[in-house]
Here is the input.
Amino acid sequence: MVFKKLQNSNQILIHLKNKFKKNDVLNRSSSVFIATFSHYQGGRRMPRNGMVEPMLSFFLPKVKTLLLLDQPHPISDTINPIVEIYKEGELKKKFYISPLFYLPIYLFCKIRSKGQIRISYKLRDFFSVIFSAFKIGGKYDLFIGLEAINLLAGLLLKKMGRVKTVVYYVSDYSPTRFGKTLSNSIYLALDRFCVKHADFTWDVSPAMKKGRIEAGLSERDMKRVLHVPNGLFPSQIKSLPISKRIPNSLVYMGTLHSEFGLDLAIDALKEVKKKIHDVTLHIIGGGEGFVRLKKLVKKLNMENSVTFYGFVKDNNEMSKIVRSFYVGLAPYRMYDNESRWYGWYGDAGKIRQYMASGLPVITTHVPPLGKYIVEKGAGIMTKDTIESFSEGIVKLLSDDKLYRRLSIAAEKISKDNTWENVYSKAIKDMETMNRI
Here is the structure.
């Protein structure tokens, strides 16, 4: 009788174990398929990419097989998608998808169009996902697609029985990304379809939910949307003692496009110098806008106060440079909703790096993360005007107690903001939702 009870107990335990195992999204025997994009230059994957390094660092130690499909961004100097196959954490095979597979599409990709949506590239991406899945073979426990077109291909693979769980990973979003155009209508329709049909959606910012509601998606269709913010590597989360930071130094890290507000920071610097004469601005970033900004600095006669570092490829080196300065700037501009501007809905990576370096942040009211860090006492919010932004800088540089308080708060917020923690929580939340 006792033996029979023990047998029943064991059966119950085995049943419960199998039941929970079915809800597992990830384990050591899992296979993962990631379809994403990167900027390639000279045959090298550049830091501007679709979360490639963070996802590889997280998944490779935890799964048996990983297939990475990396699709060169249209600004790259190459077109052909790259397939990387990992087994037990090691790269076993890497190859380019031959243009012969998609020759008509390849020829259209070669035509450098300035259109809002490069249809040829979208077709390339869709077919490269299908090709990779059948070329490599096997089935995948988890498919992660950045960009809606990759997710559509992932959903098709699920229909074919090749994929078990599909995740739509959204790194940027705006309900008016292309203004009042047909392209924008297609963009929104694809996004809505993906959110509705993906098993889970990973949004880097909670503001994206608001944007989708504005675009007409109902809240009941977003029950399986998770907030998966940007993270950092542990080596990036370091700060210097305040006494070792360069006094009265401001740093801007990121894209030089006008909507990110570096023009505003430079104009504000001119006003700040009237009260704090030795203030300096240090700019880390390259690409479009570099020449224009250099001309602006020269026009304002501030060449001795502004230093351009150019594009820093290595994240650790970039972090090392940032932490030597005093204040981080995030001068996002306010544009009307007709523009292709997702600053209202995205997750500002520059702000996360500033905080990880222990730097108080001066930001405008545009980025959602800016609002959050101000609420947590790690930054100052201003309007996106020269007068307001310069006043914010002067206020922070003139008050040592305020500076120290904001610096401590920044370090506190960012100490656990690692990619490992971000993705671990996402997987755990998915498994919890599977049990409901």
Notes: The two ends are 36 Å apart (CA to CA). The first helix runs from residue 2 to 23. Residues 31-231+419-435 form a domain with the Rossmann fold fold (CATH 3.40.50.2000).
